[in-house]
């Protein structure tokens, strides 16, 4: 496997990513949006004990809706789900959604969403509104998304360190697998005796820089935040059914568990969405003989999804910037320069 050209989820052709955040004067929160090309299949897997989500039931394989128009990731805990209203408004203005009438504007945008807990770093009442989701849509592009303390990662925290948004991609068997992770976990992401992120060994082509510091550091003695959530998206340009797409989300949680210890606690809302844009055939779909080949191909994509999501989480950790008393990785191990 090799990293994609930009090593970002936007290496999956057709995906656009945008951030919007507000910082200062009692604000440290934001929203990140992934816009999808037409006919993108969506799925989800939530493993944490405290998820905050919207429209996830539409993604169940047995339900009617097959395609999604956007994924909205936001700070603000359950209040931040309001950001999805702005995403729907933007999509509706562009006539993008599930057609429910005969005229172009008669659509219902499908915007599955998840939020993370960042309320303590904001003055009470400061959380993403629908305007955040709309602004994030306006900011979308197919370039490599900004990483670190931006968008939904603005107020993120991972264990004793500042968290943030990270992205990565992998090319395997001619398919591109991309991931975008918002790292906000109860567990730690770094071995404090060495300064090496737990998922560092999954890096490709020296993407994390180096060398790793290989020395201990004293993590800050600040109160633990018990309500956290790592949320994100894994995507592939293969043509998959909803049930197959969900396998990507399931596998991506393996990557999450490699990157933070512990993972999927009762106090995390860990939720990962999966997208399949469908521009490339995974395998010929007809005939019993060909089914094992399709399953093997899907299994390869799932393995790549796990590794790529873990790498995206490391990028989010390394790119984050300190917020108040909460230091960033770069503050405790400045000699490491990714």
TrEMBL record:
<comment type="similarity">
    <text>Belongs to the peptidase S58 family.</text>
</comment>
<protein>
    <submittedName>
        <fullName>Peptidase S58 family protein</fullName>
    </submittedName>
</protein>
<dbReference type="InterPro" id="IPR016117">
    <property type="entry name" value="ArgJ-like_dom_sf"/>
</dbReference>
<dbReference type="InterPro" id="IPR005321">
    <property type="entry name" value="Peptidase_S58_DmpA"/>
</dbReference>
<dbReference type="Pfam" id="PF03576">
    <property type="entry name" value="Peptidase_S58"/>
</dbReference>
<dbReference type="GO" id="GO:0004177">
    <property type="term" value="F:aminopeptidase activity"/>
</dbReference>
């Amino acid at each position: 496997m090799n990293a994609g050209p930009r090593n970002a989820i936007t290496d999956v052709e057709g995906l656009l990513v945008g951030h919007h955040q507000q910082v200062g004067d009692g604000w440290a929160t934001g929203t990140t949006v992934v816009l999808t090309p037409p006919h993108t299949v969506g799925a989800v897997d939530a493993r944490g004990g405290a998820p905050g989500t919207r429209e996830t039931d539409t993604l169940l394989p047995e339900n009617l809706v097959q395609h999604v128009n956007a994924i909205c990731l936001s700070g603000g805990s359950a209040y931040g789900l309001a950001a999805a209203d702005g995403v729907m408004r933007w999509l509706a203005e562009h006539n993008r959604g599930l057609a429910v009438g005969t005229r172009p504007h008669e659509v219902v945008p499908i915007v599955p969403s998840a939020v993370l807990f960042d309320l303590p770093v904001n003055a009470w009442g400061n959380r993403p509104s629908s305007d955040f989701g709309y602004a994030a849509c306006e900011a979308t592009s197919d370039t490599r998304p900004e990483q670190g303390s931006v968008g939904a990662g603005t107020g993120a925290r991972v264990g004793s360190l500042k968290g943030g948004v990270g992205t990565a991609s992998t090319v395997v068997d001619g398919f591109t697998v991309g991931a975008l992770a918002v790292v906000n976990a109860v567990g730690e992401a770094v071995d404090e005796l060495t300064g090496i992120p737990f998922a560092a060994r999954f890096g490709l082509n020296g993407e994390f820089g180096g060398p790793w510091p290989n020395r201990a550091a004293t993590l800050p003695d600040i109160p633990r935040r018990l309500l956290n959530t790592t949320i994100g998206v894994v995507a592939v340009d293969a043509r998959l059914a909803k049930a197959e797409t969900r396998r990507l989300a399931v596998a991506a949680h393996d990557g999450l568990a490699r990157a933070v210890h512990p993972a999927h606690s009762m106090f995390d809302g860990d939720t990962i969405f999966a997208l399949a844009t469908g521009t490339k055939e995974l395998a010929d779909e007809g005939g019993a003989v060909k089914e094992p080949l399709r399953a093997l191909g899907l299994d390869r994509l799932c393995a790549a999804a796990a590794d790529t999501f873990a790498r995206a989480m490391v990028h989010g950790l390394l790119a984050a910037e300190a917020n108040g008393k909460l230091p960033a990785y770069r503050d405790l191990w400045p000699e490491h320069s990714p």
